[in-house]
């Protein structure tokens, strides 16, 4: 007997034996042998088993497309004993392999005439039936002999479609996920070329009715012209029914152009599993716009003519600060600056922390003094007119080693710092 014929007969024998075991009850001693007396077997219509059926069309051993994929409310048949011609890799939403199944290829045929042998068709179609799991994400079809993946099928759409149609199914859940807030926290201003940190707090919630569910939250941004920023990220969080959470992410933002520029921070949420149905998608995404004030770096000279820049907190006077007019590149400043165009009412003086908290001191006289000032070497006086300003120094503390000035000139914010020695 030829090998193929033996295999075929063996399969039929196994199938027939299984059918007899399932459909013909063992006869009890003394029971009648009349077939009409044997009870008709009852189908288990309450079987909760389901399967995923993928109809795949092969144009070659290494090329195939999924024609249709659906969830069937019938249990998948066993692949036990199938040869390793194709391997079906079932992967969950976390990228973990749930199961690997061997199966036949529709391209393999048994050919007769002359010497019997196994042949290969140029093309063919097959339905791959695999067990259902609510965690399924993809199925990869691999040609075992070639060790090459032929096709990866996205199983999430048919699972989602099934649960939308059958919300009562025990493997399906309903959870109304939403983004409740997107709140960026940024410094008052950023200096051109110097990175700052923007922290964004995103509120998310699950209003039920089912839970807990794992949600995939994407925190992203779109930086406008004049800014660069680190990319967004995707995180996961588990939310019970009726629960809320706040997720924070830090972004590094750098100004590349002076002036005000915007960043749109967007947070979106969706269920990790396709079998979790979110009935209301209207609140799944929220965007908040942040305006960043990009300041020009400038050079200042505290107490012109003094290298120590000592400030005595016991005094009751003011400290002079020269804001220098510079050309592009002078003292490393990337942009030319005309200090005589400073808007005196916008000036504030203090430590960096105080200025970023809007707690600096204003110009003591409410005006600037346009005059030539000593440069930072405390000796040179160039031909440019600078802006000499004055501030009460009680805004400083003994622990401060740096004092700064922020203000506006010609419609742009500027910022400069110098060292300081504060004594009580």
UniProtKB/TrEMBL annotation:
InterPro entries: Ig-like_fold (IPR013783). It comes from the Bacteria. GO terms for biological process: carbohydrate metabolic process. This is Uncharacterized protein. It comes from Nonomuraea cypriaca.
